[in-house]
Amino acid sequence: MSAAILAESLTKYYGAVVGVEHLNLSVARGEVYGFLGPNGAGKTTTIRLLLDLVRPTRGRILVNGRDCRTSSRAVREQIGYLPSEMPLYPEMSGAAYLKFLGALQQRVDDGWLRRLLGRFDVSDVDLERRLGDLSHGMRRKFGILQALMGRAPILVLDEPTSGLDPLMIEAFAETVLELKAAGTTIFLSSHVLSEVERLCDRVGIIKRGTLARQTSIAELRAEMPRRVRVAFAGAAPAIPPSLRAGVKQAGTDYWKLEWQGALGPMLDALHGLQVADIEIDPFRLEEYVLDVYSREERAAR
Length: 301
What we know:
Blueprint: E1 3-14, E2 17-28, E3 32-36, H1 43-50, E4 58-63, E5 66-67, H2 72-76, E6 79-82, H3 94-105, H4 110-119, H5 124-128, H6 136-148, E7 154-158, H7 166-181, E8 185-189, H8 193-199, E9 202-207, E10 210-216, H9 217-223, E11 226-232, E12 247-250, E13 254-259, H10 264-270, E14 275-281, H11 285-300
Parallel strand pairs: 3-8, 3-9, 6-7, 7-8
Antiparallel strand pairs: 1-2, 1-4, 4-5, 9-10, 11-13, 11-14, 12-13
């Protein structure tokens, strides 16, 4: 699958400060890509380079084969963008705001916009209110609406669910999955790792301006051990040889294991034992990302 977004040795210095350095990443067409990193890691710089809001010191970033710097306008015509801090016109009504930005985009799908207004629970009254009078969550809804209403083939969404309530977060997830099914490429920067795990096909983890890891969620699930607690109806039996390496704690009537890979061999080893209960903690992206950060910190020291 060809790349919708491709960064090659992308580097940006702000004087002596590193924004990003030798950044290489690829986003396939039609995938949802999670871009993760702590504050100051280079996420915003990468997005600004992608949109040609800042220029690279060296290297380049391409969108559908076009250089974001030399073909800036053509690239931005393909992108719907939601920044983390949405610039608004406080005296403008929500309806006027969407109409104004729609005229700039010149490609608003009115039927799609009406569906979005209903999905994100934006009423006629909300549309007529001044943006400056709206809550943070409602302003965020208008930011999402303006990014999505043109049905751009590529979406760049920076912290999209910040300030949204749980129902609207669910509406956002539903919309992302619908757009993905239609072939839209979505570049999603978020600190909400449960959201990334649910929606994204692959993730790139940036740390100190460089890409620490780029991989699929499926590959991470296969790599990450799951925590398993096996409780027995009576006294815990002798540990079978195939489980000894995985058992981290053996109590009088339970074992605690860390298990990597398919569960079948573990369940086969438990066959015939007096198992009363099994608890399995699923893969959590948070744990993996925190481990990457801590390893990078140790390497830096």
